[in-house]
């Protein structure tokens, strides 16, 4: 049977660890087994149990303190990830091989890992060799996406990861629960954006003709091919969390070969998802 994986990516501070924590709690309520692997060698703490932690292999602090290397924080992290790529056998041993594995990989926040460095692409290829169906989950902080130019920047970052990794990708706006009611209403237009209208709204702030043309070309690309859309993620909204999980499950075809599980003792009703309804809903979205 195939195994399943989410690569949880995004800039530093976008809420990757909070997403993993929320998803594990949500999966537990659904009587689903979801594990988490920490791939951030600079992580300080997280509030969920991990089945594997890259810090057991290598840590950024150790690299920075090495007198022969003399790396700063960013260089140290890149060194750690390259070292990790040369030691995938550690990850294979940590993961073991359990049928129907569903694993969230909590990745570092340095964007260069997903744009022009080969490390994450190598990880994806290795996971696929281990029979994982992999979905990229790219997070952006909704608090910084309420202006057109910041939104376009976030879209381009998500698009870079999508092009580099060549896997199904679900893009998510996190921390929706932290927005004011006014900001929530304002950000709705960015979830399924009309790039042409957005360009017109912001054109008065662009003085350079060259930048106007460049911005228009970027907006045309995004709008014409519908390449990037965002789902809202509010960790206090169980229905919204379930919708996000349904989209990801559909992209990796999770649930096609599963047997129905018995509900946990004390559950009033079986809590497994109806995947026929999920596939029908998401295919029509």
From TrEMBL:
GO MF term list: GTP binding; GTPase activity
Superkingdom of the organism of origin: Eukaryota
CDD domains named in the record: GPN3 (cd17872)
Region of interest: Disordered: 261-285
Pfam family name, one: ATP_bind_1
InterPro entries: Gpn, Gpn3, P-loop_NTPase
Coiled coil region boundaries: none
Keyword set, alphabetical order: GTP-binding, Hydrolase, Nucleotide-binding
Record's function text: Small GTPase required for proper localization of RNA polymerase II (RNAPII). May act at an RNAP assembly step prior to nuclear import. Small GTPase required for proper nuclear import of RNA polymerase II and III (RNAPII and RNAPIII). May act at an RNAP assembly step prior to nuclear import.
Assembly: Binds to RNA polymerase II (RNAPII).
Sequence similarity: Belongs to the GPN-loop GTPase family.
Entry protein name: GPN-loop GTPase 3
Organism: Oryzias melastigma
